[in-house]
Amino acid sequence: MTTMLEGLVAQAEAEGATRVTLRALVEEACETGAARALRTLGLMDDKAGPDIIELRQLIQGWRDAKKSALMAMIAWSVRTAVALLLIGLAYRLDLITRLKH
What is the pLDDT of residue 61? Predict the structure, then answer.
């Protein structure tokens, strides 16, 4: 994109436009495009900043919840595996049948 813009600026300079004018034109076009994008997304009002902050907090909360759920699942899996291992070991050592008598 920058290469295309540089090419257009060089072409305009060759046709007599000054670099200052071209720079102002590009800057104005960028600002207009950014404003249009924000307006399209509904982020042009006074509540946009706090809304973005709230969205970021919600996303971070979601990430934290996913991480906690994963860690809990791993912990329960390890506990289950250890419990099954101990039950299997007790059965192998015939401790279960000895407890019944």
Answer: 98
Which residue range is the domain that position 71 belongs to? Answer: 46-101
6 plus 37 within the same structural domain: yes
* Per-residue model confidence as pLDDT tens digits over 25-82: 888 889 999 999 999 988 888 888 898 999 999 999 999 999 999 999 999 999 999 9
Q: Is there a contact between 43 and 51 (Cβ–Cβ < 8 Å)?
A: yes
Q: Are residues 40 and 55 in the same domain?
A: no
| CA angle, 17 then 23 then 29, to 5° | 110
What is the secondary structure of 35-61 as a DSSP string? Answer: HHHHHHHT--STTHHHHHHHHHHHHHH
DSSP structure class, residue 93: T
Angle at 56 between CA 52 and CA 59, to 5 degrees: 135
Report the C-alpha gap between 46 and 37 in whole angstroms: 16
